[in-house]
Design a protein that fits this description.
Layout: H1 40-47, E1 75-77, E2 103-105, E3 111-113, E4 117-122, H2 126-130, H3 132-142, E5 146-148, H4 152-155, E6 160-162, E7 165-168, H5 170-180, E8 190-194, H6 196-201, H7 203-210, E9 215-219, E10 230-233, H8 236-244, E11 248-250, H9 256-263, E12 270-273, H10 281-293, E13 298-303, H11 308-320, E14 325-329, H12 340-345, H13 350-366, E15 374-377, H14 383-392, E16 397-402, H15 404-422, H16 435-438, H17 442-449, H18 458-480, E17 494-496, H19 499-505, H20 515-522
Parallel strand pairs: 4-5, 4-16, 5-8, 8-9, 9-13, 13-14, 14-15, 15-16
Antiparallel strand pairs: 1-17, 2-3, 6-7, 10-12, 11-12
């Protein structure tokens, strides 16, 4: 059985003419001479590399549709009828609203999170930029960190760059300010990420020294692709500017033939590409030290779904550098413009990657080495997945990192708010005709923020409301497992539903879990 779909997808606006396709090539089994080209091969015959990427760019986020042999749905959460950890074993005390979801990151545990999740790096893509207000404010009022991703400064048309160094970026300043203006009680924080081009521009220096950001993240990659980031540009002047700022821009905007073709409308967008980084142990450790000298309270590393020995490097270097956070991103995710087939066919999927990660961290721990706080990323959207991700990586995984799901909450909140304001909210009419009625958490936010409540954008209310749903859902799962705070989550809170899932992760197969204890109970040797 093929794990991948045919060479047609909603992500690339392609389809098949025939109902049947080859499991080998993905082509229609009866490819017909005369077909105008509905599939990816067909459309590539006249749109070429344009079809490498999902579309429409800037209006969507995308995730792999490949069916991996093992994913989080192949595990179930175990509950129990006795006891309570983190709460008194009393039916009146051990109730789900008392489950404590607070956690912390950092070498000394000083980065406080109200919930065990954070928003991962969202950079210069259009979908992130136009939803940033909702994401930043929603994260701030929820008490979770947010990471400003790669390429923001160089992509800012109003940036001031002198002698190859960033002097000022209004977009970066805006992103940070939106979060800080709503941050409360010392929870959460802003982390700024840098890739190769950002490092050359001095983005971390600017963020730490001029904007007084507390967190700096070094980027090795992400789970959606193993190349640098891409965006599309619909302006010749922008394409020229970004090439001058050090990016790879295709086709070459300085080529007269390309300029003529663009002006004639032969193509409508340029591609801007980032470079891949080159990792070495010494340069990494030195850079961590430099960032701390420049004022970073928290230094983190973001790595992607690379081969196992690269994951081992990330774990080892994070230990040697005593990092405040290591984020590991499994294959299949995506928030912007990753090559579509790479998103499906490259890298190690999240469950497998986290299992390797746990093995490496456990070995570090066994050797008495420093074990950094870890966040796992790669497709986490709802509370069952979050529980499973935390339990599978326990006790080392302290949080999950999300991107697509909070973006969805932000743009839905924004859209619903616009519908209510315009009086055309047919989709939400059943709930009411004003924001306070439609957004069920509005009353709580109004009580909390009083006169500031009208300043809260609907997109931020969307993120906050989504997080409140995750809060209650995760509390219920944890209470059922009789775990009333996060440090009590364990790998044996899960069972594998397939032998393959058990083999890949080391989680007990469903009928073999608790086997020894169960036999002792049957014999009357245990209660």
């Amino acid at each position: 059985m093929s794990l991948s779909n045919s060479n047609a997808s909603a992500a690339t606006d392609t389809d098949l003419r025939s109902k049947s396709h080859s499991s080998l090539s993905g082509l229609c089994v009866d490819c017909l001479d005369g077909c105008p080209g509905f599939c990816e091969v067909g459309k590539s015959a006249y749109r070429s590399s344009e079809k490498v990427y999902p579309e429409p760019f800037g209006d969507i986020t995308v995730g792999a549709e490949k069916e991996y042999p093992v994913d989080f749905s192949h595990f179930n959460v175990l509950g129990t009828t006795v006891g309570a950890k983190g709460q008194k074993a009393d039916s009146d005390e051990a109730i789900f609203p008392k489950v404590d979801l607070e956690t912390c990151l950092g070498r000394e545990g000083s980065l406080k999170l109200n919930y065990p999740w954070l928003i991962g790096a969202l950079g210069s893509t259009e979908i992130a930029k136009k939803n940033w207000e909702g994401l930043a404010i929603g994260a701030a009022i929820s008490g979770v960190p947010i990471t400003i991703g790669e390429n923001v400064c160089a992509m800012d048309p109003d940036s001031k760059i002198e002698n190859g160094e960033i002097i000022r970026s209004p977009d970066m300043e805006r992103r940070i300010k939106l979060y800080r203006d709503w941050q409360m009680d010392g929870y959460g924080g802003v982390i700024v990420q840098a890739n190769v081009e950002d490092s050359r521009l001095g983005v971390h220096d600017y963020a730490l020294e001029e904007l007084e950001v507390a967190g700096a993240e070094i980027k090795w990659g992400q789970g959606a692709k193993d190349i640098g980031g891409e965006v599309k540009l619909d302006s010749l002047s922008r394409a020229k500017t970004l090439k001058k700022r050090g990016y790879i821009v295709l086709p070459d905007p300085e080529n007269p033939t390309v300029q003529k073709a663009f002006k004639n409308g032969d193509f409508k967008e340029f591609e801007r590409h980032s470079r891949v980084g080159m990792v070495s142990r010494d340069s990494f450790i030195n850079r961590v030290g430099e960032l701390r000298e420049k004022g970073a309270d928290y230094v983190s590393l973001k790595t992607g779904a690379y081969r196992p020995k690269d994951l081992a490097r990330a774990v080892r270097y994070a230990s040697e550098g005593e990092l405040d956070l290591l984020t590991v991103d499994g294959a299949g995710g995506g928030t912007g413009m990753s090559p579509w087939l790479m998103m499906n066919e490259w890298g190690i999927p999240t469950v497998y990657l986290e299992s390797l990660l746990h093995r490496y961290l456990k070995e570090l721990d066994r050797e008495g080495e420093y074990v950094p706080p870890v966040a796992i990323a790669g497709g986490f959207a709802l509370e069952d997945q979050i529980f499973k991700g935390l339990a599978l990586g326990s006790p080392y995984v302290k949080a999950v990192s999300q991107a697509r799901a909070p973006i969805t909450a932000a743009h839905v909140g924004k859209t619903v708010g616009n519908m209510v304001d315009s009086g055309q909210g047919k989709v939400v009419n059943e709930y009411g005709d004003n924001l306070e009625q439609v957004f069920i958490e509005a009353a709580n936010l109004q009580a909390k923020y009083n006169s500031r409540f009208p300043e809260l954008p609907p997109a931020a209310m969307g993120v906050y409301s989504y997080y409140k749903r995750l809060e209650q859902g995760l509390q219920q799962f944890m209470a059922g497992a009789r775990k009333f705070s996060l440090e009590h989550l364990a790998r044996d809170d899960l069972v594998a539903l397939t032998r393959e899932a058990a083999e890949a992760t080391g989680i007990d197969y469903v009928t073999e879990s608790d086997e020894d204890q169960a036999m002792e109970i049957i014999k009357g040797n245990m209660e």
